[in-house]
Amino acid sequence: MASELKPVYLITGSDRPKIQRALRRLRDRVGEEATELLSAQEANGEDAVAACNSLGLLGGGGRLVVVDDVDRWKAADTKAVAAYLSSPAPGTVLALVGVEVKKDSALAKACAKAGDVLVYDVPKRRIPDWVAKQFADRGVSADPEAVRVLVELVGEDPEELASEVDKIATWAGGEPVGTREVELLAAGCAEVPGYELTDAWGRRDLPGALAACQTLLERSGDPVSRTVPALIGLLVAHASRVRECQALADEGLTAREAASRLKRHPFYVEKLFAQARGYGPDELRDAIVRLAELDYAVKGGSRLAVDLELERALIEITPPRAAATAA
Predict the structure, then answer these.
(1) Is residue 104 part of a domain?
(2) Out of 61, 203, 272, 307, which residue is the most buried by the measure of CB atoms under 10 Å away?
(3) Could you tell me which residues come within 8 angstroms of residue 192 by beta carbon, excluding any fewer than 6 positions away?
(4) Cα–Cα distance between 59 and 43 in angstroms, integer?
(5) 136 and 21, same structural domain?
(6) Could you count the other beta carbons within 10 Å of the beta carbon of residue 298?
(7) Are residues 203 and 322 in the same domain?
(8) How large is the average pLDDT for residues 109-136?
(9) Number of domains in the chain
(10) Cβ-based burial of 40 (10 A; exposed 0-12, middle 13-18, buried ≥19)
(11) Residue 103 burial class via C-beta count within 10 angstroms: exposed 0-12, middle 13-18, buried 19 and up
């Protein structure tokens, strides 16, 4: 069976779940008892070559040597592996695993010449699509907003996202998954999961914005003096993106056209467009100015507590629609 396999596979990319599945297929072909696992943190190129040659001398069926974290290897390690690949041990498969091994690197070129280079990447702007497919593969449909919330809560690491999808899909038992289920079940791992705050601000929901802000302050592992500046940065970035989308809408662009120009996911840009319709240009400009003043205040420009300064600013930049119209 192993004779059908190539002498070497370089497996790289950010889609760690897919990389693990590729390794599992190799291990199933060769057998667990004939597999040796190494890490480039301890094993160098010569160690990997020695493992391949020693296994090959044992005879019998196929053998598999897996070396993880080969991004750490230096030129000497690559040279040793390349020399080995010019005359690899019969029946032995070498699987080299890394996150960011470039296709034009010396290691990739040596592996491509003797075997295969498998790249499994998840482009950041396509992470929501990837998450939606993970749910679909498990027989569960998740609406776009639920997918967006999951990415906001967990972050963009595919391995952590896949773990959360597994948990939520198991709980759902084939039923559709919405935002509520994600909020209840997902473990928040992202540094500042601020979608509740920005969404509340976007719909002019002051009580919701204040409540979200308080929740974020309470569940942050950092002191208030560090969390407040992070939340200010979040609000500034979000308000700036809403203002940018407002300008693009004035140019006549649709949300999908703007998503292409901004290189962001259409679902996210559609939300920004919706929020841009709820604020006037002057309001957005004033909000960004007020947040700049807030940033100055929490960095020593005010004697008030930083969380109180944040609350005051939120009240000012999130007026009810009626109040904004009257003003």
Answers:
(1) yes
(2) 272
(3) 216, 220, 227, 230, 231, 234
(4) 23
(5) no
(6) 22
(7) yes
(8) 89
(9) 3
(10) buried
(11) exposed
